[in-house]
TrEMBL record, chains A, B, C, D:
Keywords: Ion channel, Ion transport, Membrane, Potassium, Potassium channel, Potassium transport, Transmembrane, Transmembrane helix, Transport, Voltage-gated channel. Pfam families: Ion_trans (PF00520). The lineage of its organism: Bacteria, Pseudomonadati, Bacteroidota, Flavobacteriia, Flavobacteriales. GO terms for molecular function: voltage-gated potassium channel activity. This is Ion transporter. The keyword Ion transport applies. It is a multi-pass membrane protein. Its main location: membrane. GO terms for cellular component: voltage-gated potassium channel complex. Gene3D superfamilies: 1.10.287.70, Voltage-gated potassium channels. Chain C. It is found in: Membrane.
Length: 291, 291, 291, 291
């Protein structure tokens, strides 16, 4: 277990451990009062910062309040960055956290801003911060929410291979359909079939029944083929549904309630209810839990 | 049980109770001949008033018959208002009715008109009256209808948490997708991606496979990303279906026929067939029923 | 059992009965060689006549070959009319046939033409003749086809009440959604929300995820509401699927193969395999069947 | 079993047989190291050639690099042609291979190019080569992929008859709907309903919920009918899903893992795991397999 001292303030090891524990409880723990408070504040800060980015993207508003928006964004990013560093600091296995699902999201949440300093455009990616809500949701032990999600996740994972098979099949046929349509429509530029890639784009837009209409066949043959494509799409749109429904039924059965404790040692979450030790590293779970 | 006398006509308490009973039977009761008649008339009045609102909204027609339409609307609203007051009057627990599902709808059905006197636009909301048909449907004991509905309602309630989980997930990703697409397309105003909110709107329009085409990517990268989004949408559109289908199967099993009596005491409806007393307040059900 | 003689050629009753039998075998019977031949010819005549109507509807072609097309149409309609009369003549219970499902279709197939002589437009309805193929399909004992269809029909009938409940629910909400959107967008004519009926049309176009884009919100609020509507639609589009899937499972079980004999007496079709007598009128089935 | 000698190099029969075996192992075999290598190269060549065709279809790029692209295409097609001939040569039953599923695809992959020499347009069909990936996928024994696919294929085959029944039903109604809409909208050319075929195209675009909006009703009646069509479509879009889901459930049960050996004798693939002899011609399977 690697230890790292904060340079400037020099503490004895166990003073530091106590500090780490305190921080951990505040940031990660769901059962302590202060932990809950922290996460509620976090929730609002995240929403605020996403709102900021959106406002900035609206020309009229940005024109007016540019300075204010930027200032606020600086502030919020600063907070998130500090939080991120503390998260690293207080988890025992730093790297484990950094490369954990939430660790990566936490990083992605602040990165775009800094990249934005060099490539202005990318700052709009900051709204990726919204994904951090996933943790907050989980933390408030919206068990029914998480349980509902579990069923979905399990079902999707279960049907993974079938869906991949299905999608790769779809990809093959859209290429074929796209090429054929391009051949048919290429002499009518008004139809919008200006290249095979565009035609493939059209094929996807059509098969998925989105149908923007920015590209649409104009020749009789083209429209006939399009009709065939749609009828096919009509038939195969049923497939993913069938898959998921099937798996959903299975998943629904073995849907076990999870709790939302986080291992202070390896930052692993999702342990079975009432588990005393981390299922991954065997470290004792929330010793401060007063339940 | 609070009693209230009508001021102007002074009746003995049980005269008034008899009166209330009479009114109740006419307005709420489904089994008496006069009750049925009343509700049939009500049905047509509701349809008429909704038709009125629609006609008013058609410029050409409104220009011609404005006066007539307004007059008729005044009349119908007057009737509905009176009816509403009588409903309050004749139910024993006034507030119970007022805050019951149908009580609120009855209020919403007349409110827009009066608000419309101040803010003209809002009067078009009057067509919300159509929702009053729900009661009429129920009242005509279209049991098969109501039973059909029960299965749906149960299924939807059962899958509530899963659907919420699913929707909140969708909301998170549309924000992310929207921001990314905005970054890609923002330098091509003709694409319509003029701000992140608009891009999120596009993401929803696309994921749900509605695809208006008022906003559509024009850059190759944008169209490629859009294709990915559609393929994803193709995959996840299966999820809600899977959920509902699953629950529907369960719901179908425990689908018990309900009858449509209304408790004269607490205005609670949906009692099991042949129940003699209100399942909520134990009050005797339709004593006037001649079956 | 009413008898009718053909006026001009005077035959003894049983001569006539023999004649009727002969005609019946040709027109209705599926097992005699000549019956099959007749129906194959009929199949092509139907397709031809539908093709005709389509060609007539294409301005360029109609301009060129108007005379020919009209001539051919006269001819084909004459044939169909004659056939219709013969069908009436040779079935014992004339009215039973006339008001049977196929009897009505046979009439609808020729009616538009004659109406078209007065109101030119209506002649295009002649393409309704395509529905006559239903009989032909059945007649060629495409059992797998018919069986496949049976499952569908049964499933749809079974889920009838639920689907009605669902659709009437949809109808109520589109009215409400339409009115609200009209209120929001009415001051932006470019959005296309020019009246409540149009707004309801938009609501249906959106909820069903068709999304033409001919009417689309332009205000931020309007687009936000539209997004909500789509998300809702996303959720409830699952409902009919759930219903049908559920019923389909049941239907699949009790899916009994049917044969395609037609009762010469009451023109009732769909008898259980190997039935010797008409399930409706007890009349002996296809006595000419050489199996 | 027909033998054919290569004219120019004269080998004894069993020298030739040995040669054939060698080639067969390289081209068809999945278990030998060299076979794997060959197929990996093939994979990239296929992707490259499809990429080429796409690039050629993009005007700007084609203008610049036309010569290079054509040259590369010549080269790749030459390779594929040679490969095709070798495949014929080394399979014992030549015709069996030529008319096998993959044999036909292999031919279709090179044909467009040669046709393109006469009719330039058709060369874009070359991207049909992408279908050759199907074999490559299979060859790399992506069992989970293939198994996933099996379930789909089985389900679709199982539901074949029901889907045909459904589609033919859909075809009938789109003709009827199309004609009716044409009658209603034909006097408003701006709506785009310029002929019955176009109207049918519209009906399909609408029923499948694609909804381009290139053709859309403008009259009130037309929009009303369109709404009805959409509601219907809403109801029946559930049907194929129901069908597939149902079959999927069955298929999931009897989903047996397949292996991907190819019979050197009749080029039949898909044998049960661990089968020693070709299930079709009893020929010994992959004698070179070192497992």
């Amino acid at each position: 277990m690697l230890k790292k001292r904060i340079p400037f303030l020099n503490l004895s090891e166990d003073e530091e451990n106590r500090l780490k524990h305190k921080i951990f409880d505040i940031i990660f723990e769901t059962n302590t009062r202060i932990g809950k408070l922290f996460n509620i504040i976090l929730l609002f800060l995240i929403l605020a910062s996403v709102g900021l980015v959106m406002l900035e993207s609206i020309p009229s508003i940005n024109a007016r309040y540019h300075k204010t928006l930027v200032a606020l964004e600086w502030m919020l990013t600063a907070i998130f960055t500090l939080e991120y560093l503390l998260r690293i600091y207080c988890t025992k296995k730093h790297w484990k956290y950094i490369f954990s699902f939430y660790g990566i999201i936490d990083l992605l949440a602040i990165l775009p801003f800094f990249i934005g300093l060099i490539y202005p455009g990318s700052k709009f990616l900051s709204s990726i911060r919204i994904l951090r809500l996933l943790r907050v949701f989980r933390i408030f032990g919206l068990t029914q929410f998480t349980r509902g999600r579990n069923v979905l996740v399990i079902a999707l994972l279960q049907s993974r291979e079938k869906i991949i098979a299905f999608l790769s099949f779809v990809l093959l046929i859209v290429v074929v359909i796209g090429s054929i349509m391009y051949m048919v429509e290429r002499n009518h530029p008004e139809s919008g079939f200006t290249s095979i890639p565009i035609s493939i784009y059209w094929a996807i837009v059509t098969l998925t029944t989105v149908g923007y209409g920015d590209v649409a066949p104009v020749t009789t043959l083209g429209q006939f083929l399009a009709s065939v494509v749609m009828i096919i799409g009509y038939g195969i749109i049923a497939v993913p549904t069938g898959i998921v429904t099937m798996e959903m039924n299975k998943a629904a059965k073995d849907d076990i309630p999870k709790n939302t404790e986080v291992c202070p040692h390896c930052a692993d979450d999702y342990h079975l209810d009432g588990s005393k030790y981390c299922k991954t590293c065997g470290y004792k779970l929330n010793p401060h839990d007063k339940k």
